[in-house]
Design brief:
Length: 246
């Protein structure tokens, strides 16, 4: 599936390296930018993502057109990436069910184990950069309490260490399978997002640039929108930041 690998000991952000590749030339086949360490890893919005020893940080450049994903489905790339991570974790940590926190965080045992940042790269051809940070052998057990309660790693969840190459291979296999399903308009794909939805049934507050809305989460609809039952009826969100869920 992956045509090229660009490995770095240290980079600012693998997403920035990937975006620079796409500006310089047309990247057709999937290209993997992998780094042992990031000094300025970016998250969604103003978040940053520290890559510490033991974590896995990479960006995968894919050509949605090359894979046959029609443009109206591009916004579903984040959920498809998140679902791929969940399904890969089913193999890596069998018995522990991971969940998808819309739009693209992956939770394990109630803590964030993976953050995803999907960006559109403008070059001679349009590509998508799937940026993934996954906590593998790094631990949050001795981290400050504000982190321990929200973050976890595969090692924290299982009490053992993992071969990061094996985790990476499991992830790449799922990216290939799930993006092919997206390209084929597989009608079961939205059902799989819904089944993994960590927010379903919870009271969720979401902020968009203009509004702040609270409601009971009914799930994710077939277009990938988050659905909240509010006092004014069901509302659908294609973007926004979840500021609380309980
Ligand atoms: C988030 O939780 O808000 C998303 C975090 C995404 C982090 C990954 S690490 C690899 C890639 N390079 C970056 O700079 N960010 C993503």
């Amino acid at each position: 599936f992956v045509g090229e690998v660009d490995y770095h000991e240290t980079v600012d952000s693998t997403n920035d390296v990937a975006l620079a590749h796409c500006r310089r030339r047309a990247v057709d086949g999937p290209l993997l930018v992998l780094a042992a360490q990031q000094t300025r890893g970016r998250g969604r919005g103003a978040n940053s993502w520290w890559s510490v020893a033991g974590s896995l940080t990479f960006s995968l450049i894919i050509s949605p057109t090359g894979l046959g994903v029609s443009q109206e489905r591009w916004p579903q790339a984040s959920l498809t990436t998140g679902l791929s991570v969940c399904l890969a974790l089913d193999h890596v940590v069998p018995g522990i069910r991971s969940a998808l926190k819309w739009p693209n965080d992956v939770f394990l045992n109630g803590g964030k184990v993976c953050g995803i940042l999907v960006e559109v790269a403008e070059g001679s051809t349009q590509s998508l950069v799937l940026g993934i940070g996954i906590n593998v052998n790094n631990s949050f057990v001795d981290a400050p309490p504000e982190l321990t309660t929200i973050a976890t790693s595969l090692a924290d969840a299982t009490g053992r260490e993992f071969d990061r190459t094996e985790v990476l291979i499991a992830l790449l296999k799922q990216f290939e399978t799930q993006f092919r399903r997206l390209a084929a308009n597989d009608p079961q794909l939205p059902a799989d997002w819904l089944q993994r939805c960590a927010l379903r049934g919870l009271t969720v507050t979401i902020e968009t640039p203009t509004h702040r809305t609270t409601g009971r989460c009914a799930g994710i609809d077939p277009q990938g929108a988050l659905v909240l039952e509010t006092v004014e009826g069901p509302e659908r969100f294609f973007g926004g930041v979840i500021t609380s869920f309980e």
